[in-house]
Specification:
The complex is a heterodimer.
Chain A lengths: L2 H18 L11 H27 L2 E2 L7 E2 L3 H7 L2 H32 L7 H13 L2 H11 L5 H8 L16 H27 L2 H9 L4 H12 L1 H16 L3 H6 L11 H10 L4 H25 L5 H16 L1
Antiparallel strand pairs in A: 1-2
Helix pairs in contact in A: 1-15, 2-14, 3-14, 4-8, 4-11, 5-8, 8-11, 9-10, 11-14, 13-14
Chain B lengths: L4 H29 L17 H10 L1 H32 L5 H13 L6 H10 L6 H25 L3 H9 L4 H30 L2 H6 L9 H11 L5 H35 L2
Helix pairs in contact in B: 1-11, 2-11, 3-6, 3-8, 3-10, 4-6, 6-8, 7-8, 8-11, 10-11
Classes of the chains: A mainly alpha, B mainly alpha.
Keywords (chain A): Cell membrane, Membrane, Transmembrane, Transmembrane helix, Transport
Family (chain A): Belongs to the binding-protein-dependent transport system permease family.
InterPro entries (chain A): ABC_transporter_permease, MetI-like, MetI-like_sf
Chain lengths: 329, 274
């Protein structure tokens, strides 16, 4: 979530601390610090680092979870890569990225663009309401949307009522509409997150930038692209990281709406991880897929952060100021 | 700033439409849950009934599921909170060898998906004899909350003026004494927001309960119970499933109504804090 930020702060602090102090002193080391960190690393090591390492280890074995495991080298990875079903699932993940990240971000940006130009009455209320989808348990969300998409549900009733009855169908049971229908649930969930983050960011944009833009005769659209959008770069990067991660590891919504169906039309990699590990007992193969999925997610996060790295002067002066402050302290 | 009246109106209309869309799915299952015998579904409700709630409550044993969720979430909040305060304090105020390495290792936990560790975790907990117990949820979820928690507390503790700590040290306070007497008392708002976030993430987690406690109905959390209930009740009344979903959603919604400011500011700060 705040990985870049902490890394950049770390860098600043180190540079500032060393270059600014005229006398190079050996810092006094507080070895008691390890004592304070032991509980955190005990939990973290036993229940996160160890299982992560073990996932990699297991992925090189043919194992059903019960009988003796057999070393197979890269065979599990080869099987994953040669499995067309996995590629289909990955393709679905890409579609989910459009619905989970791109669409809600664009919608939220439009909302923020419109609202940042006016005085809004009841903004706190709207913000709280728009954020509710992100707060609810995904299982509740899935149950609600399954009803909306139901053959007798509100969506079909609505289409009937406005004379579009020929469009009605079991939306998540239909091969052509299942994937986008499930995707739209993601858009509904993530919109609130984008809106809240972008609103917070927009409120930090200095007002004189808007005044300057208006003096230059910028209209609403120019103003948005010249002032609002660049000012939100950091928030956009964070929102995209959270949304893309959610899209790539989407399991809850798929599991609780379509279970991957109809056929394999809404399957996702994490669904095959669960199925392989706990239903068909191909634990080694499922681990290989889990490792690949983890690598894909880490790469996507890294790429997003790299592409949207902050380069604006505002941010740089801020960093420099902080570095100076910490150097003198 | 001068604004055009039309812009004002359009802006508010957009917001109202957005708010209605955000609420609609929840409102629609609320209405469905109050509809008597909704088997036809399309028929408009003529009267209101709470019978579906009674049916869902007795068939789905949601009382036990809600209690399980509360036990797990509270235990994770307390455990992860305490551990994060200690770790964040060390990272914020102490100099020691390997500090950046340890911090870097912790950062990984912010982005690693649970899919990447759930399979060995299952066998590990099975080996410890903890599968299908509360511990199978509490211990790993403390671990997955620690990255956020430690950095959250570190950021807050770093904002505390170093002179405060020095003064306390001069007065003879120990490291731990300074944490308890100086840092913690001013950190309560930060700890509160962190607790709200961890509580929510833990309460809503689905994959871990599905894998780690699905065999023991007494330990199943509310989302898991709802998932099983909705899955097995496909043939029965959708109104009863809707009632079950409302039962599971309500506690979180109530918490949210009271703490939404804290929650939203937490997400914003946790995500964007540079």
């Amino acid at each position: 979530m705040s990985a870049t930020s902490h890394a950049s702060r770390a860098r600043t602090r180190r540079n500032g601390g060393e270059s600014a102090s005229p006398v190079r002193r050996r810092p006094r080391l507080d070895n008691v610090a390890y004592l304070y960190l032991i509980p955190a690393f005990a939990f973290y090591g036993i229940f996160m680092l160890r299982p992560i390492a073990e996932s990699i280890w297991i992925s090189f074995f043919d194992w059903d979870g019960i009988t003796e495991s057999v070393w197979t080298g890269w065979d599990n990875y080869a099987a994953v890569i040669n499995n067309p079903l996995i590629w289909e699932a990955l393709l679905h993940s890409l579609v989910f990225i459009v619905f989970y990240a791109l669409l809600p971000s664009v919608l939220a940006l439009i909302f923020v663009a419109v609202i940042s130009r006016i005085r809004v009455y009841g903004l706190t209320f709207f913000r709280a309401v728009l954020f509710i989808p992100y707060v609810l348990s995904t299982v509740v969300v899935a149950v609600a949307w399954r009803w909306i998409y139901d053959i007798n549900g509100p969506l079909n009733n609505f289409l009937d009522a406005i004379g579009l009855g020929f469009l009605t169908r079991a939306w998540i049971g239909d091969f052509t509409t299942a994937l986008p229908s499930v995707g739209l649930i993601g858009t509904w969930i993530m919109f609130g997150l984008g809106f809240v983050l972008f609103m917070a960011g927009a409120q930090k944009i200095p007002f004189d930038l808007y005044e300057a833009a208006r003096l230059d005769g910028a209209g609403a659209v120019r103003e948005f692209f010249a002032v609002t959008l660049p000012g939100l770069r950091g928030e956009i990067s964070v929102a995209l990281v959270l949304m893309i991660t959610a899209a790539l590891r989407n399991f809850d919504i798929v599991w609780n709406t379509t279970s991957g169906g109809p056929g394999t039309s809404t399957t996702v990699p994490s669904y095959y991880v669960y199925q392989g590990a706990f239903m068909t007992r191909d634990v080694g193969g499922a681990s290989a897929l889990a490792v690949l999925l983890t690598i894909i997610i880490l790469a996507a996060v890294g790429l997003t952060m790299y592409l949207l790295k902050e380069k604006e002067p505002r941010q740089r002066t801020q960093l420099r100021r902080r570095a100076r402050k910490e150097g003198s302290a | 700033m001068k604004q055009k009246r039309s812009e004002q109106i359009i802006g508010h209309v957009i917001l109202i439409v957005g708010a209605l869309l955000a609420l609609y799915p929840f409102v629609s299952i609320l209405l469905l849950s109050l509809t008597p015998s909704a088997k036809g579904g399309a028929t408009a409700a003529t009267s209101v009934t709470f019978e579906n709630y009674l049916t869902a409550w007795t068939r789905g044993s949601f009382d036990s599921a809600l209690i399980s969720s509360a036990i797990v979430a509270l235990a994770v909040v307390v455990g992860a909170g305490a551990v994060s305060i200690l770790g964040g304090y060390a990272l914020a105020t102490m100099k020691f060898r390997g500090k950046w390495l340890l911090a870097g290792i912790l950062i990984v936990g912010l982005v690693v998906p649970y899919e990447g560790l759930i399979i060995p975790l299952y066998y590990q907990l099975e080996g410890m004899g903890l599968l299908n117990t509360y511990w199978a949820l509490i211990l790993p979820q403390i671990a997955t909350s620690i990255s956020l928690g430690v950095f959250w507390m570190r950021t807050f503790f770093m904002s505390v003026p170093a002179s405060l700590l020095e003064a306390a040290r001069v007065d003879g306070a120990s490291r731990f004494g300074a944490l308890m007497k100086i840092y913690l008392p001013i950190a309560w708002p930060a700890v509160g927001t962190l607790s709200v976030l961890i509580f929510l993430f833990t309460w809503n987690e689905f994959l871990m309960p599905l894998v780690l406690v699905s065999q023991n109905p007494d330990v199943q959390t509310a989302p898991l119970s709802l998932s099983f209930f909705a899955g097995s009740q496909r043939t029965t009344d959708p109104a009863v499933t809707a009632a079950a979903a409302v039962i599971v959603a309500l506690p979180i919604l109530i918490v949210y109504v009271f703490l939404q400011r804290r929650f939203i500011s937490g997400i914003v700060a946790g995500a964007v804090k540079e």
